[in-house]
Design a protein that fits this description.
Blueprint (H helix, E strand, L loop, with lengths): L4 E3 L2 E6 L2 E6 L9 H13 L7 E6 L22 H10 L4 E5 L2 E3 L1 H7 L3 E4 L4 E3 L13 H9 L1 H10 L3 E2 H7 L4 E2 L5 H14 L17 H14 L4 H12 L5 H16 L2 H14 L16 E5 L3 H12 L3 E5 L3 H20 L5 H9 L1 E4 L10 E4 L5 H14 L5 E4 L6 H4 L9 E6 L8 E6 L5 H13 L3 E6 L6 H18 L3 H11 L5 H8 L1 H10 L12 H7 L13 E3 L2 E3 L2 H14 L8 H21 L7 H10 L9 H7 L2 H15 L15 H5 L1
Parallel strand pairs: 3-4, 4-5, 5-7, 6-8, 7-10, 11-12, 11-14, 12-13, 14-15, 15-16, 17-18
Antiparallel strand pairs: 1-2, 2-3, 8-9, 16-17, 19-20
Helix pairs in contact: 1-2, 2-3, 3-4, 4-5, 4-10, 5-8, 5-9, 8-9, 9-10, 12-13, 13-14, 18-24, 19-24, 24-26
C-alpha cells in the first residue's frame, strides 16, 4: 500500500492496482475550489496503465453533502464542478463512487459522473438545489434522467426531495448496496468490488434517455411546479430536465449551465441562501457556558387538538410522554387522534408497524395529576384563560421537584403573570407551538423576566430533538409570530375597508407566494375566535383605527368553514365568492361614508409587506427578538411567507434608506389613528444597497 498523497483537502492512496481518492473537507466534505483542485490533481497523478479502477469516497460521514453556498455569493472560480465531472467521465479507467451519508447536490453530480455507484444502506441521495434558488449546474439535470428515467428525475430535481439508498437502488441510481456497516469493513468491501469489477467505462453521458409520454411528463412537471408555490427555480428545473429528452447531452448541459449561472445571482437565490444560513445560526448564546438539564420524560397537560399534537410531536422525538386530561372523554379523543395520526403514517409508509407500536407504548394517558412528579418537563396546553393557567401552575409547583421545567403553550397571555407566585420561577418559560404541532416546524421559546439561561438552553436542546425551528423571544403580547400576523391581517382589513374585496386581497397575497390569503385563513380558523377577542378589548377600540366589517360578517352568522360560510361560501368545502359578503361590505362603506378606491395586486402586496416590515422594526425596538433574522424565520416556518422572498427583514435590507423611510411614512399615513412607526435604523442595510 503506497503512502497517501495530499493535494489540498483531497487524498490519493494506491491499494495495489486500485487508486482511492478521498475527499476530506470537514465537516461535510462540501465542494470548494480546494476540493475541486484536489480531485483534478489526484486524477492527473493516477497511472492509468497500472490502475484497474479508481474509487471516489469521502472521509467522515458523507461523500459530499453539496456545494459551499458561500461560494455562490461570488463569481465562479476555476476549476468549476462541471470541469471536475467532465474529468471523472474522461478518466481512462472506471471510477467507482462510494455514496454514503448525505450525498446531495454537487455530491450526487460527482457520483453521477462516475461509472459505478455503490452506497451504504443509510445513505441519502438528492438534488435539493431548487430549495436554495438554483438548479444542478454540473450535469445533474442531464445525467440523472439517463440514470433513472425522466419521470423519476423530474420528481427528484423539481421537488428537491431526496431518496434513501433502498429507493435509489430500485430506481437504478445506485448499482449496489454495501452489506458492511463498519467503516473498515465497508472499505474492504469497496476494494473487493473494485478489484473484481470488469464492466469497463459506463459514462451516463453516452446513454440515451428512455422515451416517455410527453403529455404525461408535462402534466407531472406542472404539478410539481404548482406544489413549489412560486419557487422560481422549480419551473426552470422542470424545463431543463425535460430538455434531456430532446437535446444531445452536450446541448443539454450547456443549457443547464446557462440557467444555473443566471439563477445563482437572482433575488430569490440570495433570499434562500440568507434563510439557509440564518436557520443554522445559534438561536441563543448564553453569557456563560451552561450544562442544560437532560430531559427524558415529558408531561403534557390537556388532550385537546393542541395538547395531543404536542404529545405526538414529543413521542415522535423518542420521549416518554404522560398525557393528562381530567375529562375522560377528552382524554380518549386525544389518544385516538394520536393513534390515528400514527396509523396514517404507517399507511403512507412513513412509519413501520413496529415504530408505530413503539411510540404508542411510550404514551401514558392519565387523569391523575400526580404523575407529573416524575416529569423533567411539564407543558400545559389547556384553555387560553389566565386564571386557569395560574391555578394549574400553582398546583404543579407543589407536585414537581424544584428543577422540573414548567412551560406554557399560551399564544398571548403574560408568562410573568402566570409564574408570579411560583417558587423558583427561573424554571418557567413559554413553549409556543403552532397548530398542527406535530407538523408545523416553528417553536417560539419564550423567556420571561425570571427564566434562567439553563432553562432556555434545556428548552432549545429539547426543540432540536423535536426537529423544530426554534427562536427565542421575550415575553410580550403575541410574542413574535402572532404579533406580526396581527399587523398584517389588520392592514388587509384596512384595504378591505378602503375598496378591495376579500377575494382580490387573497388572490394578490397568494400570487406573491403565500400559501393562502388572509381571509381564507380566517375562514379556516373560525371567525368567532377573533370576534370574541375583539369584544374583550372593546373598551380600548377608540385608541386606533377600527374596521367593523369582520364584526358584521360574524353577526350575519358567517363564522367560516365550520358554518359553511364566512368571507366565502363553501360548496363541497371549497371557497366560492358570495355576493352577500360584497353587500355587507358595501353597506358598511356607505354607512361610514367611504368612497371605495381601486387596488392593483401590487398595491395590496406592497401594503401587506410594508405592514410586516414596520411591525418587525417595532418588535426589534422593543427587544422582543434576539436577532432580526428570527422575524424572517418565524414567518417562513409559521405563517407561509414565501421562502424565496426571504422575509420582511431581508426585503427591508435590500432597500435604500431613503426609499425605506419614505415607504414607512406612507404606511403610517394611510393606516390612520394609532399606527406606530418602526425605526429603520435598527437594521443594517445590505452592503451593496448601502453603497448605491
Amino acid at each position: 500500500m503506497a503512502e497517501p498523497r495530499t493535494s489540498g483537502q483531497v487524498r490519493l492512496r494506491h491499494e495495489g492496482d486500485v487508486a482511492v481518492i478521498t475527499l476530506d473537507n470537514p465537516p461535510v466534505n462540501s465542494s470548494t475550489d480546494a476540493v475541486r483542485r484536489g480531485i483534478l490533481s489526484a486524477l492527473a497523478d493516477i497511472d492509468a496503465a497500472h490502475t484497474r479502477a479508481v474509487v471516489l469516497t469521502g472521509a467522515g460521514r458523507n461523500l459530499m453533502a453539496g456545494a459551499d453556498l458561500r461560494e455562490l455569493e461570488h463569481a465562479p472560480t476555476e476549476p468549476t464542478l462541471p470541469q471536475v465531472t467532465a474529468a471523472l467521465e474522461a478518466c481512462p479507467v472506471p471510477v467507482i463512487a462510494v455514496v454514503r451519508g448525505h450525498t446531495l447536490g454537487g455530491g450526487l453530480e460527482l457520483a453521477l459522473a462516475c461509472d459505478v455507484r455503490l452506497a451504504t444502506a443509510d445513505a441519502t441521495l438528492g438534488m435539493p438545489e431548487v430549495t436554495v434558488g438554483i438548479i444542478p449546474g454540473a450535469g445533474g439535470t442531464q445525467r440523472l434522467p439517463r440514470a433513472i428515467g425522466l419521470p423519476a428525475a423530474l420528481d427528484m430535481i423539481v421537488s428537491g426531495k431526496p431518496v434513501n439508498a433502498t429507493r435509489a437502488r430500485e430506481l437504478g441510481l445506485v448499482d449496489q448496496l454495501l452489506s458492511a456497516t463498519d467503516t473498515d469493513a465497508q472499505y474492504a468491501e469497496v476494494l473487493g468490488f473494485a478489484r473484481g469489477y470488469s464492466g469497463g467505462k459506463r459514462p451516463l453521458s453516452a446513454r440515451t434517455v428512455e422515451p416517455a409520454d410527453r403529455a404525461a411528463l408535462e402534466f407531472q412537471a406542472q404539478k410539481l411546479v404548482t406544489r413549489a408555490r412560486g419557487l422560481p427555480a422549480a419551473a426552470v428545473a422542470a424545463d431543463v430536465v425535460l430538455a434531456a429528452g430532446e437535446l444531445s447531452f452536450a446541448d443539454g448541459i450547456a443549457q443547464e449551465r446557462a440557467q444555473f449561472l443566471t439563477l445563482r445571482g437572482s433575488d430569490a437565490a440570495q433570499a434562500l441562501r440568507y434563510l439557509f444560513f440564518a436557520e443554522r445560526a445559534e438561536p441563543f448564546v448564553p453569557q456563560q457556558p451552561v450544562q442544560p438539564r437532560a430531559l427524558e420524560r415529558i408531561a403534557v397537560i390537556g388532550a385537546g387538538t393542541m395538547g395531543s399534537g404536542i404529545a405526538l410531536c414529543v413521542l415522535n422525538a423518542g420521549y416518554r410522554v404522560d398525557l393528562l386530561e381530567l375529562n375522560p372523554a377528552a382524554l380518549d379523543a386525544g389518544v385516538n387522534r394520536i393513534r390515528n395520526e400514527l396509523e396514517g403514517d404507517v399507511s403512507r409508509q412513513r412509519l413501520s408497524v413496529e415504530q408505530c407500536d413503539a411510540r404508542l407504548a411510550r404514551l401514558a394517558p392519565s387523569q391523575d395529576i400526580q404523575v407529573v412528579a416524575d416529569a423533567d418537563l411539564v407543558i400545559e396546553a389547556i384553555i387560553e384563560d389566565l386564571g386557569a393557567k395560574q391555578s394549574l401552575f400553582s398546583t404543579l409547583a407543589d407536585l414537581v421537584p424544584r428543577d422540573t421545567l414548567l412551560a406554557t403553550n399560551t399564544s398571548y397571555l403574560d408568562i410573568d403573570t402566570i409564574a408570579a407566585a411560583i417558587p423558583h420561577p427561573e424554571r418557567v418559560l413559554g413553549l409556543h407551538f403552532f397548530s398542527p404541532a406535530h407538523r408545523m416546524s416553528l417553536l417560539e421559546v419564550v423567556r420571561s423576566n425570571s427564566t434562567s439561561e439553563e432553562t432556555l438552553c434545556a428548552a432549545l436542546a429539547f426543540a432540536g430533538r423535536l426537529k423544530k425551528k426554534a427562536i427565542v423571544v421575550a415575553n410580550a403580547w403575541g410574542f413574535v409570530g402572532n404579533r406580526l400576523y396581527a399587523a398584517y391581517r389588520r392592514q388587509c382589513e384596512f384595504m378591505l375597508e378602503e375598496g378591495a374585496s376579500p377575494e382580490q386581497i387573497d388572490a394578490a397575497i397568494e400570487a406573491y407566494g403565500f400559501a393562502m390569503g388572509p381571509f381564507k385563513v380566517a375562514d379556516m380558523s373560525g371567525l368567532d375566535i377573533a370576534w370574541r377577542m375583539r369584544q374583550q378589548t372593546a373598551d380600548s377600540r377608540h385608541l386606533r383605527r377600527y374596521v367593523g366589517i369582520p364584526d358584521l360578517i360574524c353577526e350575519a352568522g358567517r363564522l367560516g368553514r365550520k358554518t359553511g360560510k364566512g368571507y366565502y361560501r363553501y360548496d363541497d368545502n371549497r371557497p366560492v365568492v358570495d355576493p352577500d359578503v360584497a353587500g355587507i361590505i358595501a353597506g358598511y362603506r356607505a354607512d361610514q361614508g367611504i368612497e371605495p378606491k381601486a387596488f392593483s395586486a401590487g398595491d395590496i402586496q406592497q401594503r401587506a409587506v410594508l405592514a410586516l416590515i414596520n411591525e418587525a422594526l417595532l418588535l426589534l425596538g422593543e427587544g422582543v427578538c434576539q436577532r432580526p433574522e428570527d422575524i424572517d424565520i418565524a414567518l417562513a416556518h409559521g405563517y407561509g411567507f414565501p421562502r424565496w422572498r426571504g422575509g420582511p427583514i431581508f426585503i427591508a435590507r435590500q432597500m435604500e434608506a431613503d426609499a425605506l423611510n419614505a415607504a414607512l411614512d406612507r404606511l403610517v399615513a394611510v393606516s390612520g389613528k394609532g399606527q406606530e412607526r418602526g425605526d429603520a435604523t435598527l437594521i443594517t442595510l445590505d452592503a451593496k444597497t448601502a453603497q448605491e
